[in-house]
Design brief:
about 400 residues, alpha/beta, Rossmann fold, 2 domains, 4-stranded parallel beta sheet, 13 helices, globular
Length: about 400
């Protein structure tokens, strides 16, 4: 009897999208449209799986990575993700990008019981295993990041009069609510709050309104294109507030350089990944491995763009999760392994920041470090600050 039970134990288990030879993963990203700066993440992920396949795959299986352009449009995302789940029959989706877009597929994926893993958005709603057990975030949540900026601002800006620019959607609101919570009884120090639509060609008129409010502090809650425009416009107007920039637009290559380094001095952001322009990482083993990998798999890419670091780091986490599944490639087991990390050291995270998850904690990264823009790079300062998580 023993040999029979041993055989049963070693039996391979598969859901849609997994076989003896392949694992099918679905992805959509904004390769076109207003958030196309983030398209670099998808390109990095695609190159990552090619490198994994060349090295023999995961437990002998090749990754079939299907990536589609959603243009940062929620209706388009719904259509493409339905195709990935119902026609392509992927095992899971991975690192689909954007708060409004992921919100559009959130219920669908959970009704279908298809893992929606390590989504590329820090909205706090991705960490709700009780109501959405098939969805997990990756980066620190926006709400907590907003609180951290508020506390720093109150401690460092004398008699603050605060102006806020916000993308008018769930992503913007999440940051703003956290920021207001961090201000607490000082929330009335916000003298002007203006929004923009992701389809707006510029945010110039909004920045003019913010400057005219007499504010001496500015929280820039915007995706890369609008964030860079706002920094540049503030400088053009001769407005010099203390500036806070959300982490999702802190790329030196895709935001700070286009905004103008001279216009970006002193801006504060939060970081959890090693910034590729920060010289302190040059002799770090993770960083050297990333740079060598980029040289081989993404020759000619802009190494100053932290989106390449993001794509590489999150792919490493997905790689490890699938490796832990062994031959049990069911959707249930994929989620089980994703929710089972204890202080895991992921390549390219700032030293001291690790990955921890559990069945009740779907926030993999819960720490950040503040950084200030100096010269042509970010300068980290202070202690690692931890998020509230669940």
């Amino acid at each position: 009897m023993l040999s029979g039970s041993t055989a049963a134990f070693a039996q391979k288990k598969y859901s849609d999208g997994a076989t003896d030879t392949e694992i099918k993963i679905g992805h959509t990203g904004p390769y076109s449209g207003p958030a196309s700066a983030y398209g670099q993440i998808g390109k990095t992920i695609e190159a990552y799986w090619k490198s994994v396949n060349e090295a023999g795959g995961i437990n002998g299986r090749k990754i079939n990575f299907i990536t589609l352009d959603d243009g940062y449009s929620p209706p388009k995302m719904v259509e493409l993700v339905r195709r990935l789940v119902e026609q392509d029959k992927v095992l899971c989706t991975f690192n689909t990008l954007g708060t409004p877009t992921n919100t559009a597929i959130h219920k669908y994926m959970n009704v279908k019981k298809v893992p929606m893993l390590y989504v590329a958005t820090g909205a706090s709603k991705w960490g709700d295993p009780k109501h959405f057990p098939w969805t997990m975030g990756f980066q620190p949540d926006y709400h907590t990041e907003g609180k951290i900026y508020a506390k720093h601002l109150l401690a460092n800006v004398k008699d603050p009069k605060i102006a806020v620019l916000m993308q008018n959607d769930d992503y913007g609101k999440d940051y703003y609510e956290g920021f207001k919570e961090g201000l607490g009884k000082d929330a009335d120090k916000i003298v002007k709050h203006v929004t923009y639509e992701v389809t707006d060609p510029t945010v110039d008129s909004q920045v003019i309104q913010l400057k005219d409010s007499g504010a001496n502090a500015f929280f820039n809650i915007a995706t890369p294109k609008a964030a860079a425009q706002a920094i540049r416009k503030a400088a053009d107007l001769g407005w010099k507030p203390a500036q806070y920039l959300n982490n999702v637009s802190a790329s030196v290559g895709s935001v700070m350089k286009p905004a103008g380094f001279e216009n970006s001095q002193g801006i504060v952001t939060a970081q959890y990944l090693m910034d590729p322009t920060d010289k302190q990482w040059e002799n770090n083993d993770d960083f050297k491995a990333w740079k060598a990998w980029m040289g081989k798999w993404m020759p000619g890419a802009n190494l100053a763009d932290v989106n390449h670091v993001f794509g590489y780091a999150v792919s490493n986490l997905m790689h490890e999760t699938l490796k832990k599944c062994g031959d049990n490639l069911t959707r249930e087991n994929v989620m089980k392994q994703a929710a089972n990390y204890q202080k895991y050291r992921l390549p390219m995270l700032i030293p001291g920041i690790t990955i921890s998850t559990s069945a009740t904690d779907y926030y993999p990264i819960q720490s950040v470090k503040l950084a200030q823009f100096k010269g042509e790079t970010w300068d980290l300062f202070g202690d690692i600050m931890s998020a509230e998580g669940s």
